[in-house]
Predict the structure of DUF4136 domain-containing protein.
Amino acid sequence: MNSAVLRGSISAFFTGLLVLLAGCSSGPQYTRDFKPDATFQEYRTYQWRQVSSEVTGVNQERVQSLVDNQLSRQGLRKVGEDADILVDLHLFLQTSSAPSTGIGIGIGLPVGRHGSIGLGSGQLLNRSKLAGTIVVDFTDQKSNALLWRGSANNVAVKNLAVENQQQLAVVIEKLLQQYPPQ
């Protein structure tokens, strides 16, 4: 076999493998929705309206601080009152079910020349997992209209804990980098 063809085949195999593995990643998924006719350049200040968490062990002030830091890097200024935007932050847990996996066993005994008797059993393995969701809402203070909503779904619960502030900072950064919409 030609060595160039062999190298090309190996390269194609590993490229396909990488694409397959990338599709199987189970990290956070980021989504956003926004009011299409909003002029986001006009919004320069914000203030907190509501922060809620259903996740035990989460320091809400720390999460707020991470959001404040990211919004500041993006050019928004936090004010005490009369802000352009009201910010709401919600953290909660969801149970997600991974694809089910089954395990089985079977025993077969031959009977005569062409017959057999078989006995089998199977068990379905439940693979549900607990994952965190972070939702950030930006609301126009004057009209009380929702301008932008970003969410990070499937966040590992361990990344919401106080001791994993760096991982949480990365999630918050990626979530808020979706604002303003391009």
